[in-house]
Amino acid sequence: MCGTTQPVDTNLLVQVCAVRSKNLENVESAVIVRNNRSGMYGTEVAAALYEEYSGYVLARSTCPNSGVAPNSWSVCFGTVREDGYPVYVGSSGVNGKNTYGSPDV
Protein backbone atom coordinates (compact mmCIF):
# COMPACT_ATOMS: atom_id res chain seq x y z
CA MET A 1 0.00 0.00 0.00
CA CYS A 2 1.48 3.33 -1.07
CA GLY A 3 1.08 6.78 0.36
CA THR A 4 0.40 9.90 -1.66
CA THR A 5 2.84 11.14 -4.28
CA GLN A 6 4.87 14.01 -2.85
CA PRO A 7 7.43 16.42 -4.26
CA VAL A 8 10.87 16.45 -2.61
CA ASP A 9 12.56 18.81 -5.07
CA THR A 10 11.80 20.53 -8.36
CA ASN A 11 10.51 17.84 -10.74
CA LEU A 12 11.37 15.05 -8.30
CA LEU A 13 8.45 13.03 -6.88
CA VAL A 14 8.38 10.28 -4.27
CA GLN A 15 5.92 7.62 -3.17
CA VAL A 16 6.48 5.54 -0.03
CA CYS A 17 5.03 2.02 0.16
CA ALA A 18 4.69 -0.93 2.51
CA VAL A 19 4.63 -4.15 0.47
CA ARG A 20 3.27 -7.57 1.50
CA SER A 21 3.93 -10.80 -0.38
CA LYS A 22 1.16 -12.74 -2.10
CA ASN A 23 1.27 -15.42 0.60
CA LEU A 24 0.88 -12.64 3.23
CA GLU A 25 3.92 -13.84 5.21
CA ASN A 26 6.63 -11.37 4.14
CA VAL A 27 6.81 -7.58 4.15
CA GLU A 28 9.22 -4.87 2.97
CA SER A 29 9.40 -1.15 2.29
CA ALA A 30 9.64 0.41 -1.16
CA VAL A 31 10.39 4.03 -1.97
CA ILE A 32 9.58 5.03 -5.55
CA VAL A 33 11.39 8.05 -7.01
CA ARG A 34 10.27 9.75 -10.23
CA ASN A 35 12.75 12.09 -11.92
CA ASN A 36 10.86 14.43 -14.27
CA ARG A 37 13.99 16.46 -14.99
CA SER A 38 15.87 16.53 -18.26
CA GLY A 39 19.10 15.42 -16.55
CA MET A 40 20.36 12.75 -14.18
CA TYR A 41 19.53 13.34 -10.51
CA GLY A 42 21.35 11.76 -7.57
CA THR A 43 19.21 10.37 -4.75
CA GLU A 44 19.91 8.70 -1.44
CA VAL A 45 16.93 6.97 0.19
CA ALA A 46 16.18 5.70 3.71
CA ALA A 47 13.07 4.02 5.13
CA ALA A 48 11.97 2.33 8.36
CA LEU A 49 9.32 -0.40 8.41
CA TYR A 50 7.23 -0.63 11.61
CA GLU A 51 4.83 -3.19 13.01
CA GLU A 52 1.57 -1.33 13.58
CA TYR A 53 0.44 -2.73 16.92
CA SER A 54 3.75 -2.87 18.76
CA GLY A 55 5.49 0.06 17.07
CA TYR A 56 8.53 -2.23 16.74
CA VAL A 57 10.96 -1.38 13.93
CA LEU A 58 11.16 -4.46 11.71
CA ALA A 59 13.79 -3.07 9.34
CA ARG A 60 15.73 0.07 8.54
CA SER A 61 16.84 0.20 4.93
CA THR A 62 18.91 2.55 2.82
CA CYS A 63 19.85 2.83 -0.82
CA PRO A 64 23.11 4.71 -1.26
CA ASN A 65 23.43 7.69 -3.56
CA SER A 66 22.75 6.70 -7.15
CA GLY A 67 21.65 8.52 -10.26
CA VAL A 68 18.07 8.41 -11.45
CA ALA A 69 17.97 8.82 -15.22
CA PRO A 70 16.04 11.70 -16.78
CA ASN A 71 12.29 11.15 -17.06
CA SER A 72 12.43 7.76 -15.37
CA TRP A 73 11.62 5.83 -12.20
CA SER A 74 13.80 4.25 -9.54
CA VAL A 75 12.71 2.02 -6.65
CA CYS A 76 14.56 1.42 -3.39
CA PHE A 77 13.38 -1.87 -1.86
CA GLY A 78 13.97 -2.55 1.81
CA THR A 79 14.92 -5.71 3.65
CA VAL A 80 12.32 -8.49 3.49
CA ARG A 81 11.01 -9.57 6.89
CA GLU A 82 8.58 -12.30 7.91
CA ASP A 83 5.63 -10.73 9.75
CA GLY A 84 1.91 -11.48 9.64
CA TYR A 85 0.81 -8.33 11.48
CA PRO A 86 -0.06 -5.02 9.78
CA VAL A 87 3.03 -2.95 8.98
CA TYR A 88 3.72 0.53 7.63
CA VAL A 89 6.65 2.73 6.65
CA GLY A 90 6.72 5.28 9.44
CA SER A 91 9.76 7.31 8.59
CA SER A 92 11.54 7.78 5.33
CA GLY A 93 13.55 10.34 3.46
CA VAL A 94 15.17 11.25 0.18
CA ASN A 95 18.39 13.28 0.14
CA GLY A 96 17.91 14.13 3.80
CA LYS A 97 14.37 15.47 3.34
CA ASN A 98 11.64 13.75 5.36
CA THR A 99 8.80 12.20 3.41
CA TYR A 100 5.35 11.02 4.45
CA GLY A 101 5.07 7.35 5.33
CA SER A 102 2.72 4.73 3.97
CA PRO A 103 -0.64 3.31 5.02
CA ASP A 104 -0.52 -0.05 6.75
CA VAL A 105 -0.63 -3.30 4.84
Summarize the structure.
With 105 residues, the chain is mainly beta.
Structure description:
A hairpin with a 2-residue loop joins strand 8 and strand 9 (97-99). The model has no long low-confidence stretch (mean pLDDT 96). The protein has strands spanning 6-9, 12-20, 26-35, 41-51, 57-68, 72-77, 81-82, 87-94, 97-99. Helix content is 0%, strand content 62%. It has one domain (6-96): Immunoglobulin-like (Sandwich), CATH 2.60.40.10. It contains no helices and 9 strands. The protein is mainly beta and 105 residues long. The strands form 2 sheets. Strands 1, 2, 3, 6 and 7 form a 5-stranded antiparallel sheet that branches. A 4-stranded antiparallel sheet has the order 5-4-8-9, with no helix packed on it.
- Runs in which pLDDT lies below 50 for 5 or more consecutive residues are none
Report the major sheet: 5 strands, antiparallel
CATH superfamily placement = Immunoglobulins
Please give the domain count: 1
Helix amount, in percent? under 10%
Give the overall average pLDDT: 96
Task: Kindly state the number of beta strands.
Answer: 9
CATH topology: Immunoglobulin-like
CATH uppermost class: Mainly Beta
Q: Strand fraction band?
A: over 45%
In the CATH classification, which architecture applies? Sandwich
Give the helix/strand class.
Answer: mainly beta
Put simply, the count of helices is 0
Rg (C-alpha, Å): 14 Å
Q: Termini distance?
A: 6 Å
Give helix and strand order, one letter per element, not per position: EEEEEEEEE
Shape: elongated
